[in-house]
Design brief:
The structure is a single chain. By secondary structure, this protein is of the alpha+beta class. It has 2 domains: 17-171 and 227-319, 2-Layer Sandwich (BirA Bifunctional Protein, domain 2), CATH 3.30.930.10; 325-418, 3-Layer(aba) Sandwich (Rossmann fold). The chain is built from 16 helices and 16 strands. It has an 8-stranded mixed β-sheet with strand order 1-5-6-11-10-9-7-8. A 5-stranded mixed β-sheet has the order 13-12-14-15-16. The chain has a 3-stranded antiparallel β-sheet with strand order 2-4-3. Helix 13 (336-351) links the parallel strand 12 (328-333) and strand 13 (356-358). It is elongated and about 95 Å long. The protein starts with 16 loop residues before the first helix and ends with a helix. The protein binds one RNA strand through residues 1, 4, 7, 58-60, 63-64, 81, 110, 112, 114-121, 124-126, 128, 193, 207, 209, 257-259, 268, 275-277, 279-282, 304-310, 332, 334, 364-374, 377, 380, 382, 384, 386, 394, 396, 398, 401, 403.
Length: 421
RNA sequence: GUGAGUGUAGCUCAGGAGGUUAGAGCACCAGAUUGUGGCUCUGGGGGCCGUGGGUUCGAGUCCCAUCACUCACCCCA
């Protein structure tokens, strides 16, 4: 236990972390181009925030939250998602007073108490964007296109964008009733979860993977046919906008997201090559959430992408494809006196922006050469007693395999020129 | 929370239906003309056999429990 990370968590080690850095850079760059500003919120919040916003009947709130009492008897929850905290911050700092719409992005760890499996962890990382203050369908298209652009920019291919409209507080209740009525006759044939859903959230039955439930719901009228005038128009324009900017999509009338706050647009990006957890990201519109959290009516739309899953989809790509190790210089010093000179040398080189390393284990020259080779050193500076007495060092080109004497004074300038800096 | 599978060296794995000091490859360290990398050769260090019980003269091997990992269900990123 002492030497084991808790279940569902893990360390990101050198060799793997470079991939993370690569994805993080790409995402930040993209957000800058789309004019989104970063926001950083705490990784824990008052439990109430998630219960109210994500929804009492959702799996996240019902069974997946890391909740505890702090020493002041406050109920605290490690954030299971990023939208609610962003909404909270938006209201707390009165960001509605800024130029509209407010376009934000975030990145960080999220926590859900779930049984781990491929692509699912208890601590995982998401990044997402949230836009407040516009109900324009064109904005939905922008948000979706940003998610799609990210996957394109890092070379993840073969994804499917699924799209649906889940209606609004005006048209959804009647659709819910419709489902209830339709299914009432089949009540006994439903799976256990679904008979519960019939009461709590009938729309989720559409999403059930049980064979029986699927058959029952097969002929249920679709949500898209029950949208109110405004929602239907909105959905139509989202679709048209996506076509206008050439984002391909697939309408899935059964797409129902697991968080209660979604209205109208709901979408998910799926990698069919992945296992059971194949959703790389998803999001949608949540026009009522800000109000639920105590603010004025403020339409909003956003998405979240799972980093671990993006990495899974990227698996085929090797680190070398994404990340080039900076070539450097290895200083091989022989003997104690030379060792000190070696330290001075690497310090000087580093100050010049050249990657430099030396030996700290009093190893033989042979071993030091091996080390130099391993860290991909382009040059090795060999300093022995003899050379130092003459004020000179040996400069070895590891790639060409030859070496020559250079005076110690001019070595830095020399390398600076050679290493292109 | 439910189900199935798997836990032997840093990594990937061997260990015939229980029997001596638990092996290999890779990695690591050292040496092969005591100042020169990659290739090769030689040697070396490393293992509470996940943990705890039990059966047995004897358990890495059989039984039970437990923990962890993996995959799936549920749900989602």
């Amino acid at each position: 236990m002492l030497t084991k990370a808790p279940r569902g968590t893990g360390d990101i080690l050198p060799g793997e972390v470079e991939k993370w850095q690569y994805l993080e850079e790409q995402f930040k760059k993209l957000c800058r181009d789309y004019n989104y500003k970063e926001i950083r919120t705490p990784i824990f919040e008052h439990t109430e925030l998630f219960v109210r916003s994500v929804g009492e009947d959702t799996d996240i709130v019902g069974k997946e939250m890391y909740t505890f009492l702090d020493k002041g008897d406050r109920s605290i929850t490690l954030r299971p998602e990023g939208t609610a905290p962003t909404v909270r911050a938006y209201l707390q700092h009165k960001l509605y007073g800024q130029a509209q719409p407010v376009k934000l992005f975030y990145y960080g760890p999220m926590f859900r108490y779930d049984r781990p499996q491929a692509g699912r962890f208890r601590q995982f990382h998401q990044w997402g964007v949230e836009v407040f203050g516009s109900r324009e369908p064109l904005l939905d298209a922008e948000v979706i296109s940003l998610a799609v652009a990210f996957f394109n920019s890092v070379g993840i291919e073969g994804l499917i964008l699924e799209l649906n409209s889940v209606g609004c507080s005006k048209c959804r209740p009647s659709y819910r009733e419709e489902i209830r009525k339709y299914i009432a006759g089949y009540r006994d044939s439903l799976c256990l979860d679904c008979s519960r859903r019939l009461e709590t959230n009938p729309m989720r039955i559409l999403d059930c993977k049980e064979k029986n439930c699927k058959e029952i719901t097969n002929n249920i009228p679709e949500m898209t046919g029950h949208l109110c005038e405004e929602c239907r128009e909105h959905f139509k324009e989202v679709v048209e906008s996506l076509e206008a900017i050439k984002v391909s999509y697939r309408i899935n009338p059964r797409l129902v997201r697991g968080l209660d706050y979604y209205t109208r647009t709901a979408f998910e990006i799926i990698d069919p090559q992945l296992g059971a957890q194949n959703s790389l990201g998803g999001g949608g519109r949540y026009d009522d959430l800000v109000e639920v959290c105590g603010g004025n009516t403020t339409p909003a739309v956003g998405f979240a992408i799972g980093l671990e899953r993006a990495l899974l989809a990227l698996k085929s790509k090797s680190i070398e494809d994404l990340y080039q190790e900076k070539p450097g210089v290895f200083v091989a010093a022989l003997g104690n006196k030379a060792g000190m000179e070696g330290l001075k040398m690497v310090t000087e080189l580093r100050h010049e922006g050249i990657k430099a390393e030396k030996d700290y284990l009093h190893r033989s020259l042979k071993a030091q050469m091996k080390q130099a080779d391993r860290i991909n050193a382009r040059y090795v500076i060999i300093m022995g007693e003899e050379e130092l007495e003459k004020g000179k060092v040996l400069l070895r080109d590891m790639k060409e395999g030859h070496q020559r004497e250079v005076t110690k004074k001019e070595i830095t300038a020399h390398l600076k020129e050679k290493m292109g800096r």
